[in-house]
């Protein structure tokens, strides 16, 4: 947990009485000459669920990687829970502890058991005792329904089980925000739902979530807002009902035709 002194100042980040925990303001990013994010603005409130979709290469992964500073932006500002993400940021470990991330490719450590994957960061980053870390790990292993696989290595688990282990690993750090980058796109179809179910239950418990996904059923069920990105810009942001029934942007309309 971050100390009270590190808690975000609500002044300036509070809109209509709601706490804005991520504020992205006119963010621009380049990879060399390639302008990948263009004037991206986004506010995320505590407990809000945002689904991000859009064509491949539109900047979705880059955007969410900027939020936990895995990628650096060059212009504009990103503020996460009161911490401004600058190039010389000193409290990046606070950001990494508060913002969990799950990737398409699970990224579990192959040489560690599932249990050891889950306890590694709490022991080394949060300085927890092994006993306390294991207690939390078991809680989340049960929560994602893979407790019986705790002593196996990642390669011994199915893709769906590995992704649930990866989610549990993030939860062990007790983050306030979870970022998901196409968490189900590497899975065989029959395993997609077991991962989405875990994400739905997280959402129902009030986790703040930004999810890059093309699982539109999930978006309809869980999202407060759906964002559509194209060529580095957020071109549409709507509540799901409007996004699916009556999108405004031409590109969104085209995109939705293709995936339905
Ligand atoms: P998306 O997740 O929407 O598919 P990405 O954010 O991964 O899009 O990528 C956006 C664009 O930036 C793509 O054209 C991609 O090739 C390019 N890109 C992504 N990562 C890098 C990188 N590390 N270096 C150079 N170009 C990159
Ligand atoms: Mg991507």
From TrEMBL:
Tell me the leader sequence span. none
Name residues in a coiled coil. Answer: none
Which SMART domains does the UniProt record give?
AAA (SM00382)
Recorded hits in Pfam families, A to Z, give: ABC_tran (PF00005)
Any one GO MF term held by the record is: ABC-type amino acid transporter activity
For this protein, the record's SUPFAM superfamilies field holds: P-loop containing nucleoside triphosphate hydrolases
Instruction: Please give the superkingdom of this protein's source.
Output: Bacteria
Q: Which keywords, in A-to-Z order, does the entry hold? A: ATP-binding, Nucleotide-binding, Transport
User: In this protein, which residues make up the domain named AAA+ ATPase?
Assistant: 46-233
Please give the family membership noted in the entry. Belongs to the ABC transporter superfamily.
Name assigned to this protein: Amino acid ABC transporter ATP-binding protein
């Amino acid at each position: 947990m971050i100390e009270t002194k590190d808690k975000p100042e609500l002044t300036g980040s509070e809109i209509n009485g709601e706490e804005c925990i991520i504020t992205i303001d006119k963010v621009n990013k380049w990879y060399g000459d390639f302008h990948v994010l263009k004037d991206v603005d986004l506010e995320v409130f505590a407990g809000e669920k945002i689904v991000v979709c859009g064509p491949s290469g539109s900047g979705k992964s880059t955007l969410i990687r900027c939020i936990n500073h895995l990628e650096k932006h060059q212009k504009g500002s990103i503020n996460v829970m009161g911490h401004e993400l600058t190039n010389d940021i000193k409290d990046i470990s606070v950001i990494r502890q508060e913002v969990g991330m799950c990737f398409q490719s699970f990224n579990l450590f192959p040489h560690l058991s599932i249990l050891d994957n889950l306890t590694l960061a709490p022991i080394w980053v949060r300085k927890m005792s092994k006993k306390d870390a294991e207690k939390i790990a078991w809680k989340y292993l049960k929560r994602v329904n893979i407790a019986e696989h705790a002593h196996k290595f990642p390669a011994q688990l199915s893709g769906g089980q590995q992704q649930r282990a990866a989610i549990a690993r993030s939860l062990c750090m007790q983050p306030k925000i979870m970022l998901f980058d196409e968490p189900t796109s590497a899975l065989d179809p029959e395993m997609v739902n077991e991962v989405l179910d875990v994400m739905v239950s997280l959402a129902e418990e009030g986790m703040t979530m930004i999810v890059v996904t093309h699982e539109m059923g999930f978006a309809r069920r869980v999202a407060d807002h759906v964002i559509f990105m194209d060529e580095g810009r957020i071109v549409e942001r709507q509540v799901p009902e409007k996004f699916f029934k009556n999108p405004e942007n031409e590109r969104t309309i085209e995109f939705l035709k293709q995936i339905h």
